[in-house]
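quick one, 195 residues, struct below
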Amino acid sequence: MVINIHAQTAVAGEYYLRGVMETASGFLLKPDSTFEFFFSYGALDRAGSGNWVMKGSKITFNSKPKPVHDFALINCKTVKDSFITIKITDNSTLLQRYVNAQLKFADTTIGGMTNENGEIKFPRREIENLSLQFKFCPEKISLFDLDKKQNYFEFRFEPWLMEYFFNHFHLTIDGRDLKGSHPLLKEGDYRYEKR
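---
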């Protein structure tokens, strides 16, 4: 594939999302074919980065491969009680209360949200697997196979929890601006104005 370096350099710049209330978001396309992405909604801030390539009027964004897990298992053990305890530990106690945990058993799946201490308890049974999902990153689900004999599992957030990983995301050049979907908003046509 031949890339027109002059056209790609002309497209480089800052592009900001327009027309979405209470949301700030945009892309910085650098001349070296790398990009930075930001998204801010209320107290929620997310970011991403990677490489971009232009072919015709289409720009494609890709990040490094997404890690398998967004949580790290830091402690597991057997305790003497009748529960399975899932515990989220983090320096920010505000975030640990927003993790959805789902336990899969042989015949059913049960789930719920961690409490203000980052804990959730389930009736003790033999586990098949556990999935964890941070409420504000709904596209990220971490699936764990756990030791069936243990009933206490403690996790921490990985540093990349809030990072968005692009995988063949496309925008189209429209005059000076970009248009297309948004990686974190509901489906629709959005415009990103060049500054």
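The chain has two domains: 5-63+164-194, 71-157.
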